[in-house]
Amino acid sequence: MKDEKKQTMSGGCPAGTHGHGEAYGGTIDTKTDALLTYASYLQVPELLRLQKPQSQPPHHDEMMFIIIHQTYELWFKELLHDLDAVTAAFRHVAESAAKRDEIYEAARLLRRCTEIMRVAVSQFTILETMLPSHFLAFRGKLEPASGFQSEQFREIEFLCGLKDEKLLRHHDAAPEAMAALQRRLREPSLHDVFFDALHTVGKLKAARPKATDEERALAVRDLYMDEQHFRDWIDVCERLVEFDELVMSWRLRHIQLVERTIGMRSGTGGSAGSSYLRTTLDKKFFPELWEARTMLEQPPQ
């Protein structure tokens, strides 16, 4: 009986089947002095109370619409968590010329970021199961809320180097969000510290603030032309390009979804809708990494 009790946790799941072992089944929740469970660890009851449809009576598809967007915000939270760590790794390289461990860790976390973005892109197919007429049945209740008000997506843009102070106006009603975004504007971006690190290891001759776009692209080209000695850096470059590519894919799928659902209507927040979104398609976080491909020379035969 002792062994049987040890193997059982709330919900009927054997301890360890979720990969956390004692994290779910063997510790005490100090707030309640109760045995920690799957539900209390993940705060499932609180999580499931966060979906509050605005339509009355609630339209069936509004629940899915809310859950998809809440899921995006959770993924954005994880992306910020990981991209901040990648930025810190590059900063360490830039400050101390430390290399192997930091570059490995940056590449590992960037792989996760690309997989998260791949999932984020694929989630649009779930939204596409909603008929345009079904969305219009509750769309009016969303005004003046808008996707432009996603603080975390804007943080991702600022963190990666696409900083546009004019976009802060979308966050006037949220002082905490405004403070976080202003901090992102002031801090060095992932783009900045990546090229700082290249300067430290001797692949970017000019100090980063003085380097031109062409010089940065040439530094990246030089990495690819010396694959034998810079495979770890090339791996990082490939992951940065892939992340960039997937964010652009996310923008495109967003536009396609908007046009499929509401056509050329204006956005709920007063934006120009898909016509504005199309102006964002050419935005790249790391344009020099793309330009370097044009500069590559044919290797000797």
Automatic annotation (TrEMBL):
Q: Does the keyword Metal-binding apply?
A: yes
Q: State the free-text cofactor note.
A: Binds 1 heme group per subunit.
Name the segments for region: Disordered: 1-24
Q: What Enzyme Commission number(s) appear in the record?
A: 1.13.11.11
Free-text function comment from the UniProt entry: Heme-dependent dioxygenase that catalyzes the oxidative cleavage of the L-tryptophan (L-Trp) pyrrole ring and converts L-tryptophan to N-formyl-L-kynurenine. Catalyzes the oxidative cleavage of the indole moiety.
Oligomeric form and interacting partners: Homotetramer.
| Name of the protein in its database record | Tryptophan 2,3-dioxygenase
What does UniProt list as this organism's lineage? Bacteria, Pseudomonadati, Acidobacteriota, Terriglobia, Terriglobales
